[in-house]
Amino acid sequence: MKINFTTKAIENLSPKAAAYIAYHASGERGTGPVGVRVYPSGRKTFVYRHYVGENYKISDAR
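The structure corresponding to this sequence follows.
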C-alpha cells in the first residue's frame, strides 16, 4: 500500500488482523523507502527499508 504522508492520512490508517506497512507514495530513489507499520493493536511506528548486501532489512524508528 502506498500513501502520501500527511497527518490525516497516517491517522486514518486502520488496524487489520495482521500488521502491515504503508509506504510513502513519492517513490523517491536513493535513500530507501520510508513507511508506517500498523499493528493489529492500532500502534503505528515509522519504518525504513534498506539493503544489507543483497537482502533488505526493515528497521523500526525508535
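The two ends are 22 Å apart (CA to CA).
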